[in-house]
Structures are given as C-alpha cells and as structure tokens.
Design goal:
By secondary structure, the protein is α/β, with parallel strands linked by helices. Helix content is about 35%, strand content about 25%. It is built from eight helices and seven strands; from the N terminus they run ααββββαβααβααβα. The chain has a seven-stranded mixed β-sheet, sandwiched between helices. β4, α3 and β5 form a beta-alpha-beta unit. The termini are far apart.
Amino acid sequence: MHKFKALDRWFKTPQGLSVANAFTSELITVGDYFSGKKLLQLGLCGDNLWLPALNFRHQWFVTPEEGADPKALVASLNALPIERSSIDCVVAPLTLEAFGHDKNPLDEIDRILKPMGYVVFFGINPISFWGGALRWGCLPCFGGLAGTLTSSLTLKSAMLQRGYTQCLHRTFYYIPPVVKESFIRKLSFFNEMGKMIWPFPAGFYCFIVQKYQPITPPLLFNTFDNELLYLARN
C-alpha cells in the first residue's frame, strides 16, 4: 500500500520527526508500567523513535510494503502470518488512518494478542486541524492521499466490545500541520500552552488498552493444585 511507504518516509521529515518526538514523550511516562517479551509494530515509521521507551525484549515490524526494510515482515495487516495469542504488545501508529472503517485490522490485532496483552494506538484527532488536513488529502504523511479518521471514542467503543480495558487515553500535540521546520519551531509554544489550556483541539491521541481475560475455573483449579503440591513438598 502506497500509504505505508509514504508514512515511513514522512516520519523522517521535520514535520514527521516533530510528531515522532511527541509520540515518544507520551510513552516515556508510561513505558515502565508494562513490559513483556514480544512486541509487534504495524508499519514502519522512520526510525521508530518511541520503541526504546517500551520494555519489550523482542521488537518486530510488519508492513504491506515490499522492499521497505529487510528486517521487516512483509504481509497484509489483515492476514498476519502470526500464531494466535502469541504477541505481548501491538503498536499501531497512525495505522487505522490508512484503512477504511470496514477493513481495519482490529480483529487481526485481537487474534494475535495474548490475554492481558496491550495495544498502543496513536491516531489523528478528527476535530483538529490535523484531522481536517487529512480529510482533504493535504497531509504529506500519506503522500497526499486522504485517510480514514477514527475518533478515540469510536476506537474505545470498538475495543470495549472486544473485551478490552482502557489503560490510557491522552490527547496531545497542538502545533498545526505546518511543514517547514522553522514554522514548527516558532509554533512549538502551542504545546506548552496546551498543558495549561487548550488553544484548540489537540492533533493526536494516544490510546492504550489491555486485553482482559478472566481466569477460568480450570485455570483456578490448576493454580490451587500447584499451591497444594508446593505445600506438600515443603
């Protein structure tokens, strides 16, 4: 898909790097609260600056773009060649914006994620300047192509219906979608202003959910059996 190739390139531009640093700042504050072995990111995003903030031993990438990176798995994001319940964390940076509402990979994310695993979504706020620019195909992040906007409330509803619990929901980044680095620096004070009072809706949101699965009776019995065996041996 052309959109994912354009997204990878965009994260290397001044505008994309500014957004990537904002993504990183959001995850640094919560990265110590969850960890695991296997992390999978959907799509390549430049240097993927935010991933070091997440404490996962193995970090992999999957992209539908051939030849994007020799280290990345090339596959459709709606048909991942990955075993069910095998991934501890899935990161989806601007992934849903590249799909239509009826073709997004939420079901596939749910399939590969382990019980109690995490999903990290970064999305564009539909009611922000960024949302308007994407709606009219004016954002270079997708090569000038229009994207699909999904509000954090719509995403929350979709994940709650799948049995997930919300861990974090934040909106951030108040710099308008200007391209030139000099303008980005001049308007960076909007981010500081946004910490006190919103001058206008934030451009992005970070939404983290956990796949909740209650302990089933057989698992409870196995736990009790193991405890009794431990007591008997000691």
